[in-house]
Amino acid sequence: MSHDDRLFLVTAAAGQTGSATIDLLLERGHRVRAMVHRDDDRSRALAAAGAEVVRADLLDLDGVTAALRGVSGAYFCYPIREGLLEATVNFAQAATETGVRSVVAMSQISARREARSNAARQHWLAERLLDRTGLLTTHLRPTFFAEWLTAWWELRDGEGRLRLPFGEGRHAPIASADQARVIAAVLADPEPHDGAAYTLHGPVELDHHEIAAVMAATLGFPVRYEPISVEEFASAMTARGLPAHLVQHLGNVAVDYRDGVFAGTNGHVEEIGGRAPMSVEQFVRANKPAFDASGPRFVPAP
Fold first, then answer.
1. Helix, strand, or coil here: 31?
2. H or E element: which one contains 250?
3. Distance from C-alpha of 290 to C-alpha of 147, rounded to nearest angstrom
4. Is 194 within 8 Å of 186 (Cβ atoms)?
5. Residue 118 and residue 124: Cα distance in Å, rounded?
6. pLDDT tens track of the chain, all 302 residues?
7. Backbone φ, ψ for residue 106 (5° rounding)
8. Beta carbons of 146 and 179 less than 8 angstroms apart
9. What DSSP state is assigned to residue 60?
10. Which helix (H) or strand (E) holds 10?
C-alpha cells in the first residue's frame, strides 16, 4: 500500500459508485472523506473501513464548504432529483473558496442541450458550469447501470421477467464497481483527464431479449423481456410513488434508448480503470442473491 497525503471527498458516499470508489481509494492508501446525509449502517461501515465520515447536503452551501476544506480532489455525484443545478453551483463555489484542485463529476450518457429529459438537460448544464471553473474537470457519462437489472426485475412462478419500455434498443450495461475504478483512477491522477467527457460502457452491446437470454443461462431458469409502452412504464413508476422529476426522466430516456443514445462500447473502463468491465453474465453471477426476489421497481403485468 502506498502512502498519499492528499485528501479526497466522495459525495453520495453511501451510494453504489461512491462506496465502491471509497473502498478503492482506501485500499490504495489515500485519505478519504465520505459525505453522507445520515448516520446509518452504511455510514458506520464507511467509518469502520477507514473513511472520515461527514454529514452534509449539496444543497447547503455552508455544509459543502466545510466538507471540502483541505480536499485535493472530489467526486461529485447528485441523484436524479430536483436541485442538481443548485447543488452544482454550491459545489463549484465551495470548491473554489477552499482551493480544491480537481473534480470527477457523474453525469449521464443522455446529457445534451436538446435532451427531452429535464434531468439530462440539467446534467448538460451542470457540466458546462463546472467547465467554467478553475478546477481540473472530468465528466463521466455512463450508459444504464447493470444494477438497473435488479431494480426492474420481477420473479414470478419460477420465471424472471423484464417488463421495460426499451423496444429493440441496445446498450452494454456497466456495473457501478467498474465505474468506481475509473473514478478512483482519475481522482488520483487528474491532469491527463482534464476537460474530458468519457462515456462508460460494459464490454458487450445487447438488446433486452439478449440480456434476458444471458440472465436465464446464468440463473438456470427462464427469463424473458416483455417490451411495454413508455406510458405504461411511467404510470407504474408513478403508482410506486417515484417523484415526478424522476418519472419524467425515465420516460424520456426510454425514448432516447430506443433512438440509440445509450448504445455503443469503448475501452475507457479498461484503459483508465485498469481492468476490463464486467459482462452481464459476470454481473449476474456475482450478484445472484439479488435475483432471488423481485426488484423494488418492477412493472407488474396488467
1. strand
2. helix 244-258
3. 10
4. no
5. 10
6. 455 789 999 999 999 999 999 999 999 999 999 999 988 899 999 999 999 999 999 999 999 999 999 999 999 999 999 999 999 999 999 999 999 999 999 999 999 999 999 999 999 999 999 999 999 999 999 999 999 999 999 999 999 999 999 999 999 999 999 999 999 999 999 999 999 999 999 999 999 999 999 999 999 999 999 999 999 999 999 999 999 999 999 999 999 999 999 999 999 999 999 999 999 999 999 999 999 999 999 999 88
7. -85, 115
8. no
9. -
10. strand 7-10
Encode burial over 216-237: b for 16+ CB neighbours within 10 A, e otherwise. Answer: bebbeeebebebbebeebbebb
Residue with cell 440539467: 122
Query: Can you tell me the distance from the alpha carbon of 266 to that of 156, in angstroms, rounded to the nearest whole number?
Result: 35
Furthest C-alpha separation in the chain: 57
Residue of 171, 180, 138, 193 lying closest to 262 (CA atoms):
171
Q: Which of 71, 39, 66 is nearest to 53 (CA)?
A: 39
- Count of CA atoms in the C-beta half-sphere (13 A) of 123: 26
Is the pTM above the cut of 0.90? Answer: yes
Q: Do 51 and 34 contact (CB within 8 A), yes or no?
A: yes
User: Cell for 208?
Assistant: 433486452
CA distance 26 to 45: 13
Lookup result for grid cell 465502491: 20
- Give the contacts of 192 (CB within 8 A, at least 6 positions apart): none
Query: 63: burial class by Cβ within 10 Å (0-12, 13-18, 19+)?
Result: middle
